[in-house]
Amino acid sequence: MKVNKVINIFAASFCIFLLFSCQSLKIEKEVTETGSIQEILHSMTLEEKVGQLFLIQPDQLDLNISLEETFNRNKKPHYVLNSQMQETLTKYPVGGIIFFAKNIKNPRQLKKYVKELNSSSKIPLVFSVDEEGGRVVRLARNKRFGLKNVGPMLDVGNTGETENARVTGEYIASYLSEYGITLDFAPVADVNTNPQNIVIGDRAFGSDPVLVSKMVGAFLEGLHNKGLKGCLKHFPGHGDTKDDTHADYVIVKKDWKELDRCELIPFKENLEKADSIMLAHVTLSALGKSSLPSSLSKEVVTQKLRNEMGYEGIILTDALSMGAIVKNYGSGEAAILAFEAGNDFLLMPYDFVEAYKALLEAVESGRISEKRVDESLVRILKLKGYK
């Protein structure tokens, strides 16, 4: 597909989108009104600090429903902020929200939802979504938004034109920012080298690490051009697997040198552009005796990504409600291990309250230092626009 053809398609789609949307969402809280990062840190209680480390779906704020219902996409969709959710948000002041399709009804509802959630939070929230294009979209699948699904990233990669990836990122960012979304969990930086891969497949730009790297960088530029933050996923690479971490353990047998020659390239080449990096739950058997998934491994998160590769931005786990974690670790211990490993944001623990209480107790007991918490908070507050 030629560049101009792709641009024309997206431009036309965006015009349709404008017809269906209302005025741009204005977040009521201005970041500059609440002080500098250091001033905020000094004003926060330990409970507030720990809360900021969690990024959860809005359904998890409703403690009146069961965990099974919370994570069932077909039950109890939450479209509005109720009193129980507001009370939970006050008691457990999380740092961010991730929306799923069941939380999104129509343009007017989503704008109102974002506004109400943000107004109920002392510190502005990160609002995130998985909007990759293709089979992983939340807004573009809803006909009431009048949006064009840009299609799988493999199709974009197959054009060989990085401009197409940039335009794709710009288009997605244009409509997400219209609704107050501040962080897109995209692009997928995995290199899809295993034909039997049931998780990544056409979500990746391709099987050539150099091509994927260039496409990932261009997509990120597109997001940034429209004021949106992005996320490289799933470090250290989920492309050479055939099993699904949503179900249970997934083993990657390559050693670090082998990963460095392929899977790590798109991450390494885009570290300076990356706003955040998501850790996969894949287990690297070659790293030694530890059988911890990468998301819970200090060797992978801190020693490799943070120290050796020199990444300074936000690091977060993949959803801690996935089978690879839930079937093998309790919500509390998983949260502690993930934070000890070096993650800043803990994404969707299965039992959020249990995870929060466990992490708070770990800090109060001295297992985790408050200084370590502050280090993550500095990065999180920077992501939110504080200085």
Q: Which descriptors apply to this entry?
A:
three-stranded parallel sheet; five-stranded parallel sheet
Percent in helix: 40-55%
Proportion of beta-strand residues: 5-15%
Order of helices and strands: HHHEHHEHEHHEHEEHHEEHEHHEHH
Classify the secondary structure makeup into a structural class: alpha/beta
Low-confidence residue ranges? 1-7, 9-33
On the 0 to 100 scale, the average pLDDT is 90
Shape: globular
Q: Give the count of helical stretches.
A: 16
Rg over CA atoms: 20 Å
Number of strands: 10
Give the terminus-to-terminus CA distance: 42 Å
Task: Give the neighbour order of strands across the main sheet.
Answer: 4-3-2-1-10
Biggest sheet overview: 5 strands, parallel
Question: Can you summarize this structure?
Answer:
The chain is α/β, with parallel strands linked by helices. The protein contains 16 helices and 10 strands. The chain is 41% helix and 8% strand.
What does this protein look like?
The chain has 16 helices and ten strands. The N and C termini lie far apart (42 Å). The N terminus is likely disordered. The longest helix is centred in the N-terminal third of the chain and has 18 residues. 41% of the residues lie in helices and 8% in strands. The protein has a five-stranded parallel beta sheet with strand order 4-3-2-1-10. With 387 residues, it is an alpha/beta fold.
